[in-house]
Structure formats: C-alpha cells, structure tokens
C-alpha cells in the first residue's frame, strides 16, 4: 500500500559520511505487547546493507529487549512495574532482539551491552571505544543496547536516544541517524496539532526548540521528542550531525540509501569539544557534589585553574575516587552548578581535607593522590 507523502518534508541532500550510528526505537520493532516484528526493521536493514556495501561503517543502537521479553510472557505494557521484573523481561528479550537483526545480514552481528558505569568510568569508557572500533575493523555489525539486566539505579541510562549520541561520540562517528515513528521535527506535536509546521533544518538547538518538544508517542518506547533533541544537542557538541526521520516509511528509508533525507537535519556546533571534554560534559554523574567557595569558583571559571582543597567547603553524597561529580558554588544567592569533573578523592576524604592546603593532604589522610581535588584536565565548565 502506498503511503502518503511525508507532510511538509521535502528531500534534502545528505552530507558525505563515513561512519554513522543508527538508533532504532521500540516503536519501530514491536507492536504493543505483540513482540518483535521485521516489518520496519527490514527497510532499515536494507539501508544499513547499502551503506556497508558503499564502504561505510554503521553501528546500530537498538531498543526492544523489554518489549520482546514482555511478549514472551504474554504481558501487556504497564507503568510502574518493579525493576526486577523489567530486568527479567530485558534478559528474556535480548537474545530475540539480536536474532532479529542477525537475520537480515550475512556478516556477524555483535551484541554490545553498556551500563551507566561503562560511560562514567574513564577506563571502561575507553575500553568500550576500543571494542567497538575493533568490531568494525573485523567487519562485524555492532548492535548496542543498555545492559538493562544489571542496571541498578534505574532501567535506562536516560534513554537510547541519548545513548546513541554518546556512542556516536565514542566512535568518532560523522552522523547520527534517529529512526522514529514521526516524519521529523515539528513546531508542535503533529498528532495533536494538525497545524504544526515541519522544521527541515536546525542550525542550533535553542531553548525555543526544546519548548516545542513533547512526550513519548507510544506505549512501547520510552523516549519522546524531547530526548531526541537532547541527543541531537549532545551529538552537535561533538561535531556530529543528527538526522531525524520516519523509520516506518519505506520511501523515507529508501531515500537515505540514495543520499537524501526526508526529515529534519540538526547541524553540529562550529567548535568541536575535545573528546575528553565531551566525555566529561555528557557521561552520567554520581549522586552528590563538591561544594566550593567564590574564590575557587572564580579561579576555575576565569583562569582555568584546577580545584584545590583550600577552596572546597564540603562534599555531599557518598561518591568515590574516580567518580564523575558536579561542582557547586554555594553563597548567599543559593546553589549554582558551575562545573563537573572526575574527583581525585572520595567524598569522605574531601570532607576531611576541605579548607586545608594541598601539602597537608598526606598528613591528614595518610596518603596522597595529588594536590588537586579535581585537575583542570578532568574538569569541564557548565
């Protein structure tokens, strides 16, 4: 059956790209409570195959494990179910999800499951990067998902839209393709506002655009348009273009293989952040914060200085050495987040050395990891 034209969207040429991340949501892979379906996945797989045949590299970030597990047990979607049950559903469905993608490709499909800690811990972040790059070098097709089965804080890192943006930066991708069930980005939700205007090209994601975004559109997926804009903003900060398109439309997906976009293009920032600074800005942070005085805040923001114990007033939470934490200025105006970075000391240690000179650290703690609480190379301003 022929589909009507994508409302208001016209074809625009895609820029040249060598490596891309394709994010596919649950709404494209699973009907409500009915398990995984190849209906839309087939067209997307054909786009991937055409890209691979042209000498490009693709990584798929795919949702759908929980939906697949739910179908195995014949359970309808519901909100507020226990974490353990959602994790069990993910464990049941993950094998089916990988099997769905493997059926479309002659090359091996590699399952890569990432966790909150993999993206927060610098060493594990770099290990994940090395693994993905080696899989690409071996000619495999990586399919990435959150390791839902062992997530402890909550089921998702945030959502797979944001995970896809982090993966795109992780592997130095040129493009992030987000397949959804809507034609592109509109000035309002086109399902409830028929007069909404299509937006073909976004130069910079201002607060005005974020205000246009709505919530989740289906009972299967977890991400709405707001999370897609968040992902596009993160990708843009890393110099990566994002392309939002309707993955349920065969003509739209076929156009991608021809080098054309029927959807919305989000352009990258002009000045690309260094890879480490990007990681510092976007990876998940640990609960808690390091509280500093005005002098320390000024030294970091105006002079690019490291954070020394003398400018720290206290530490909140129970984070450990090597964790990603936020730096908060607390004064008569209240609390303001000014930076985030990798702490060289635990929260317990920082509370002991706060307001002290760096030379006193070893005498107080009995050991010394250096004179900085956060080194400037491990710090990014907010």
Automatic annotation (TrEMBL):
Xref: InterPro entries: AceGlu_kinase-like_sf, Asp/Glu/Uridylate_kinase, Glu/AcGlu_kinase, Glu_5kinase, Glu_5kinase/COase_Synthase, Glutamate_5-kinase_CS, PUA, PUA-like_sf
Predominant location: cytoplasm
GO CC terms of this entry: cytosol
Task of the protein: Catalyzes the transfer of a phosphate group to glutamate to form L-glutamate 5-phosphate.
Membrane-spanning segments: none
Name assigned to this protein: Glutamate 5-kinase
Species annotation: Pseudoxanthomonas wuyuanensis
Keywords assigned by UniProt, alphabetized: Amino-acid biosynthesis, ATP-binding, Cytoplasm, Kinase, Nucleotide-binding, Proline biosynthesis, Transferase
Enzyme class: transferase
GO biological process assignments: L-proline biosynthetic process
Alphabetized SUPFAM superfamilies for the sequence: Carbamate kinase-like, PUA domain-like
Catalyzed reaction equations: L-glutamate + ATP = L-glutamyl 5-phosphate + ADP
EC number: 2.7.2.11
UniProt-annotated binding residues for ATP: 23, 180-181, 222-228
Location of the protein in the cell: Cytoplasm
Domain of life: Bacteria
Residues given in the record as substrate binding sites: 63, 148, 160
Pfam families, sorted: AA_kinase (PF00696), PUA (PF01472)
Pathway(s) where this gene product acts: Amino-acid biosynthesis; L-proline biosynthesis; L-glutamate 5-semialdehyde from L-glutamate: step 1/2
Gene that this polypeptide is encoded by: proB
Domain PUA: 288-374
Molecular function (Gene Ontology), one example: ATP binding
Family assignment from sequence similarity: Belongs to the glutamate 5-kinase family.
Family annotation (NCBIfam families): proB
